[in-house]
Amino acid sequence: MQEIKKSVGIIGIGTYLPEKVLTNKDLEKMVDTSDAWIVERTGIRERRIAESDIATSDLAACAAEKALSDAGVSADEIDLIIVATVTPDMLFPSTACLVQDKIKASKAAAFDLSAGCSGFVYGLVTGSQFIQNGIYKKVLVIGAEALSKIIDWDDRNTCVLFGDGAGAVVLGEVESGYGILGVELGADGSGGDLLKMPGGGSRLPATMESVNNRQHFLQMSGSDVFKFAIKVMGEAAVKALDGAGLTNEDIDCLIPHQANNRIIQSAAKRLKVPMEKVIVNVDKYGNTSSASIPIAMDEAIKSNKIKDNDIVVLVGFGAGLTWASCVIKWCKEGNTVASK
Ligand code: ACO
């Protein structure tokens, strides 16, 4: 069993999704694809797209304000903001600093975290350490993406998969036995080429040539990422459960990264978790990368699919390559009482 000091849990959650909906039928007019292909291969029916003047920090700040309100915590009580994203507003300053200013969290430290679609769970685990060790009391963790800005809208292999959105949680101390019980983080950098945006960094700064070569767009070897995801999702969840002294039979609710319905079903099958315990909303939002897990969790809480004392398992995979899982014993009421 992993040794946990103070118990840390989610004491507030909020999400933000842009209003503009892009359906598979809309995509049929843009690239050589079909609603039938997209639904059969991915389960995605539509996704949300941010307006041209909206950036990741705008989505993140909206989600953060909802999470603060849900927690009954004011922005000036936040000690640290972590934004997990692969679509920062710019290389620097960090999107977390931009959010700090937007929500007026004047005393909060702030930094970004890059772990692809595993980013939110990486952020959750990172943020919780500061509270477990008594350094901070309240930490805001946000997964936010404006993937539509880095998608090659002429590439049917990728443009049908992704969407924009943000999810945020407030972490605080909770009653012993609740909150985060076990974690697993991992990476295999040898798979970095499988999912990347090559241009715009110090390896390949922006030039006319790099723009003409479409190197400032997301590039992915879909079938390789698919195989990696199938393998790693179940393994990561089992390790996190093991750290909590639990097994797959204890899972009440599984919240996988929402990339592809076939990947989700395969992970559930490997974990022997029936689909009625699995949260799926990839049909409505596509793959929102680091935002997908908190968005799915918020929906699950609001629709009473997560109840007090449930064992909830979050599990994601993504660019890096990375994977991350976290086991949470949920009790919103108990958490709120303990957090005061
Ligand atoms: N419409 C129609 N046909 C298409 C489309 C499309 N949108 N996209 C690809 N095809 C074609 C391909 O060109 C290929 O045609 P060909 O056989 O003539 O060459 C055929 O469909 C099959 O392509 P595959 O890539 O083999 O299809 P697959 O069943 O693997 O599905 C998919 C592709 C959906 C991308 C799948 O591989 C997948 O979901 N991979 C994981 C992706 C993922 O999860 N990415 C997120 C990572 S997380 C992060 O950090 C961002």
Walkthrough of the structure:
With 340 residues, the chain is of the alpha/beta class. It folds into two domains: 8-177, Thiolase/Chalcone synthase (Peroxisomal Thiolase, Chain A, domain 1); 180-329, 3-Layer(aba) Sandwich (Peroxisomal Thiolase, Chain A, domain 1). The protein is built from twelve helices and 13 strands. It has helices spanning 24-28, 35-42, 56-71, 95-103, 119-132, 156-159, 208-212, 222-243, 261-270, 282-285, 292-302, 332-339; strands spanning 8-16, 21-23, 46-48, 80-84, 109-113, 139-146, 164-173, 179-187, 195-196, 219-220, 253-256, 311-318, 322-329. It has a five-stranded mixed β-sheet, with helices on both faces. The chain has a four-stranded mixed β-sheet with strand order 8-13-12-11, with helices on both faces. It has a two-stranded antiparallel ribbon with strand order 2-3. A hairpin with a 3-residue loop joins strand 12 (311-318) and strand 13 (322-329). Helix 3 (56-71) crosses helix 4 (95-103) and helix 8 (222-243) runs parallel beside helix 9 (261-270). The radius of gyration is 19 Å and the shape is globular. The relative contact order is 0.20. Acetyl coenzyme *A binds next to helix 2, helix 6 and helix 8.
